[in-house]
Write a structure and sequence with these properties.
heterodimer; A: 172 residues; Arc Repressor Mutant, subunit A; 2 domains; 8 helices; 66% helix; B: mainly alpha; 60% helix
Chain lengths: 172, 129
């Protein structure tokens, strides 16, 4: 692999398709857009720096997300407030990136209702289509933990989705 | 794919983000300035003689401890002289009065003897003596 040999060009090509997916994910975990961009930059720098330690038995995206989660946590470590309360609705970077819709984006509800790790597990499963094994590897958790918490997350979001539908029907 | 999974996927796609040209340039510039680290950390290698020296030192130390423990002079065993218990233990004055239980027992014996005599007389009458 040319990227593992230290070629910046090859590495840039390799990660090109992941950049926006990673940024979207980081946006859900950072206080503002600038922090998410910084976290993306740090993720890619760290990935390149440690590219020789990458084990091809893992999916490359799994490895990248593992680094991204650590960088997002580091960028947030100075914050006093928990992630759900980091910003008000108007300055919420995630909300700013979502086009207006009558029904609230379920990921906004997810971020409000789920804790950080369960949110990440849900995102990796349903937005990134990752396997349980890969999610467990990204979050450094067991497969059982991942399954149980995905199920809990699903139950919470299912209730939220049904509640929202019922409300919208009630108000016409 | 169930309804929730479909909705989550669609909602994730609704989050519109783009990597700006400026961020792209920043990332590329940062990558140019770094070199990938070697895949495995370099071990601080010790020469083979170090292993042997530490092994021999350990064995010698263990042998020394065993020798010290085994060669230690045993502590003298304490001996005790015989003690005259009669001289030590004070004499106890056992003063106990015997219980006066003879009277009821004597009465019982007299009654039994009287019963026996009556029985003998009755037997003699029965057999015509």
């Amino acid at each position: 692999m040319a990227a593992q040999a230290g070629s910046v060009g090859a590495f840039t090509d390799l990660v090109h398709s992941y950049r926006e997916r990673l940024l979207r994910f980081l946006l859900t975990r950072c206080a503002n857009f600038a922090d998410a961009e910084d976290a993306l930059q740090d993720t890619l720098i760290n990935a390149f720096r440690y590219i020789k330690t990458y084990d091809s038995r893992w999916r490359f995206s799994t490895w990248l997300y593992r680094i991204a989660i650590r960088n997002a946590a580091r960028s947030r470590s100075g914050d006093v407030l928990p992630p759900g309360d980091l910003c008000d609705e108007e300055s919420d970077p995630l909300r700013q990136c979502i086009s207006d819709s009558e029904i609230e984006n379920l990921w906004l509800s997810a971020r409000r209702l789920l804790n950080d790790e369960v949110f990440a597990a849900m995102w990796l499963r349903y937005a990134e289509d990752m396997s349980i094994k890969d999610i467990a590897a990204v979050l450094d958790r067991s497969a059982s933990w991942t399954k149980v918490n995905l199920m809990r997350g699903r139950r919470v979001l299912d209730e939220e989705m049904n509640r929202a539908v019922t409300e919208s029907e009630a108000y016409g | 794919m169930d309804r929730l999974a479909k909705r989550l996927r669609e909602n994730a796609e609704d989050i519109q983000v783009t990597v700006s040209d400026e961020l792209d340039r920043r990332i590329t510039a940062s990558l140019q300035g770094i070199e990938p680290l070697p895949d495995k950390p370099v071990r601080s290698g010790h020469p083979a003689s170090f292993w042997w020296a530490s092994t021999i030192t350990g064995v010698v130390a263990a042998a020394a401890v065993v020798a010290i423990i085994n060669w230690r002079v045993p502590a003298p065993v304490a001996t005790e002289e015989a003690v005259d218990l009669a001289a030590v233990v004070p004499e106890i004055d056992w003063k106990a009065e015997s219980a006066m239980l003879t009277s009821p027992l004597q009465q019982e014996l007299d009654d039994l003897e009287a019963d026996l005599r009556k029985a003998e007389e009755k037997v003699k009458q029965d057999i015509g003596l």
